[in-house]
Amino acid sequence: MMSFDPPELHRGQLFVFEGIDRCGKSTQCENLKSALEGVGRTVVLYSFPNRDTAIGSVIDKYLKKEIDLPDQAIHLLFTANRWETMKDIQKMLLNGVTVIMDRYAYSGICYSVAKGTLSLLWCKAPDRGIIKPDCIFFLDLSPLKANRRAGFGEERYEVIEFQEKVRDQFLKIKDNSWKKCRSLKVDGTGGRGKLRRQETNPYEGDD
Question: Where is this region: Disordered (predicted)?
Fold first, then answer.
C-alpha cells in the first residue's frame, strides 16, 4: 500500500477524478483536498471546464444551451480550455504542489466520442502532450442513479441516454488507454466515509 508521501525530487502529484455528470466528482475532490491538506500537503483544485476564462465562457453558454456549436468546434474549445492552464499546472507540480482535477482530457474525449460523430483518434489528437496524471479515480455511477441527484438535467449533456453512452466510453478508454496510469475504479454508490478512505489510500488493491 502506497501513501501520499511526496515522490523523489519533491515533485507534486496530479490526481484526476473522472465519471459521468452528477456522479460525485466535485464532492470527492473536495474530500481528497481536505484529507491531503490535513497531513500538510499544499493542494490546488482545478475543475474543467474552467468557465472563468474567455474560452470557458463560450463553453458555459454551450452547456447551458444558450448557443449551438458544431461537435468539432466544441471539442476543440474544451481542449483549448485545458491547454490554457497547462503551464500553471506544470509550474505548481515542479514546486511540489499537489494538483487535483475535477475532469480532465478523458472527459473531453469520452463525451465527444459518445456523440457518434467524431472518432476516438480524432478526439484524442488535440490533447497529445498534456501532463499525465499520477492517479485517476473513476467514479462509476449508473446514469439512472445520477438522474435522481439534485441538478441533473440542467445542462446540455445531462440526459440519461447520452450519459449511458458516455459511461460506455469511459469503460472502453480505461481498458484501452489508461494502462500506463495508476488508476483506481471507485464505486460512486458507496457511502462518503468509505469512498474517502479509499481516496486517502489510492493505490490499495491496485496491482
Answer: 188-207
Q: Where are the beta strands (DSSP E) in the chain?
A: 14-18, 43-47, 98-102, 135-140, 182-187
* Four-point Cα dihedral 99, 72, 183, 168, nearest 10: 140
The rounded distance, in Å, linking the Cα atoms of 193 and 179 is 28
Break the chain into its structural domains and give their ranges. Answer: 10-200
**CA 64 – CA 70 distance, rounded (Å):** 15
* Tens digit of each residue's pLDDT (9 = 90 or more) over 52-108: 999 999 999 999 999 999 999 999 999 999 999 999 999 999 999 999 999 999 999
CATH fourth-level superfamily of 10-200: P-loop containing nucleotide triphosphate hydrolases (3.40.50.300)
Which three cell numbers, joined as nine digits, stand for 193?
A: 466515509
For the segment 6-44, what is each residue's pLDDT rounded down to a tens digit? 445 578 999 999 999 888 888 889 988 998 999 899 999
Cell of 45: 483544485
HEC per residue, 67-104: CCCCHHHHHHHHHHHHHCCHHHHHHHHHCCCEEEEECC
Q: Are 12 and 94 in contact (CB under 8 A)?
A: yes
